[in-house]
Write a structure and sequence with these properties.
By secondary structure, this protein is of the alpha/beta class. It has one domain: TIM Barrel, CATH 3.20.20.60. The protein is built from 17 helices and 15 strands.
Amino acid sequence: MLHFSFLNDSTRDRLFHRPPRELTPESDPTTLAVGLGATLYTPGTRPGLAEGLLKRARSGCTSTVLCLEDSVADSAVAGAEDNVVAALEELGRRRLAGVDGIAPAEGGNPAAGVWTSSGSRPERLPLLFVRPRTPQQLLAVGRRLGPAAELLTGFVLPKFENASGRGERFLSALDRLNTELAPRVPLRAMPIIEHPVTTHRESRVKALLAVRELLRAHRGQILSIRLGATDIASAYGLRRSRDLTIYHVGVVADVISDVVGILGRADDGWVISGTVWEHYSNTERILRPLLRATPFEVANSAMLRQHLLGANLDGLIREIELDQANGLTGKTVIHPTHVPVVHALHVVNHDEYQDALDIIGSEGGGASASKSGTRMNESKPHRAWARRTLQRAEAYGVARPRVNFVDFLEASMK
């Protein structure tokens, strides 16, 4: 995958001090996890799934989950399995055969992630994941895919916990599938923390510590960790409005804090993604928007601000800012309009990048003013932040001085 690959060369050069680096399943796992960005969930029942994946990729989607779990009715599971397998097999055939004007990747390798169209920019599939309901379904779908499993990066593991051994069964099934299929790059797991035993106050810490030990034992299999806010809130009959972020829902915010506190520590933790943003159509506003007008006025983009307000995307922007402040990277999304917002807010601004370089380059500790003159850098306590910032820069790029998220949004939403 390559963030902002849809931009032309002149626009990329105008916006980026350092452009994003292309990532593949073979890339450093932490950088790859950071670079997942807006992970778009798609029900496995959706018609025209193969063409839809290509269409979303052309508009900037870089990671997609094909869901066989909660987004699929119990009565439709078998049909959803058939649909997902058929879509991946179709993509595999088209890739190898070079049909519809799309030439196969160099060497005919179906996992390389790039299709070259004659006379145009390369087409990239998003990183693809399947979300099964059970370990048994994971094995069954993977076996049905056969060679087409090379198109997958891995599986999303719902309601992950190990008090009952569920987590161990999921990871054992994945290990078995990797042994059977022997893919060029082993398929990886993204567990979702959403099961009541890992989220209810009376059992949460013990259950999360058990999950941590299990993940440590299977570190090579784990790509990142996801948070299932919808399931967590459902235990209390709650659902946030478009005016509020997930951090306003106290019981869910408490879970996020504990998950980051136990699984997200800089010296031992995993990349943890932000919770799903589930609003995508205009609804009545009760509270005043907090999206400042100034950045849009500077960029001569007042109309863009009005569009964001009308499409409920100002709430998404606010929540992403809070995600990043609370140690979360990337976001689960349910609509293509969310994707450019997530990615624009993950580009590293020039001052942050310079601070990170200065901190990493400093030996022996100490403090100094940032080159921008706006804050203090302390070499030792800020080192983990600097490493994470440079990983984000690898995936999303670094903005030129005086280029902000509005410029990236405007270029992405044209």
